[in-house]
Amino acid sequence: MPYEAFKHIHFTVIGASIALFILRFIWVMKGSEMMQKKWVKIVPHIVDTLLILSGIALIYVTGFTPTNSPWLFEKLIALVAYIVLGFFTLKLERGKLFRTFAFLGALGWLFYMAKLAQTKMPILFM
């Protein structure tokens, strides 16, 4: 598959992952029963697995690696921060204020990852 195909797959799966994250945050904040549905527990893991696989495919196709592209290393660090804050948002039994700040922090890391992918200019570990 050429670069463009992997890129479009990656962007599509990113959109699905973000939409599911926001939707699950809303459900958690409302105490919705939707969070107990089987598909809500399974689909996000499938989407995130596809996201990681498409990212690996892009690394393979482009030749960018975390060792030769500092922006990609930084993006992976941002991904870890996003995952941790996503866990705090959706799984950690804390108050609504804590969950809201974790959610906003996770969105901040998402925007930072998008900016890194767009500009390829790292700023944290120059």
Outline of this structure?
This protein is an all-alpha fold and 126 residues long. The protein contains four helices and no strands.
Account of the protein in words:
This is SirB2 family protein. Keywords: Membrane, Transmembrane, Transmembrane helix. It holds the Pfam family SirB. By secondary structure, the chain is mainly α. Helix content is 78%, strand content 0%. The chain folds into two domains: 1-63; 65-121. Helix 1 packs antiparallel against helix 2 and helix 3 runs antiparallel to helix 4 (96-119). The model has no long low-confidence stretch (mean pLDDT 95).
Provide tags for this entry.
single chain, 126 residues, mainly alpha, globular
Report the total helices: 4
So what's the overall shape?
A: globular
Poorly predicted runs are none
Q: How many E-type strands?
A: 0
Largest sheet: none
Rg (CA only) = 16 Å
Q: Which bin fits the share of residues in helices? A: over 70%
- The percentage of residues in β strands lies in under 5%
Taking all residues together, what is the mean pLDDT? Answer: 95
Which class do the helix and strand fractions yield? mainly alpha
- Element order, helices and strands? HHHH
**What's the N-to-C terminus distance?**
33 Å
The total domain count is 2
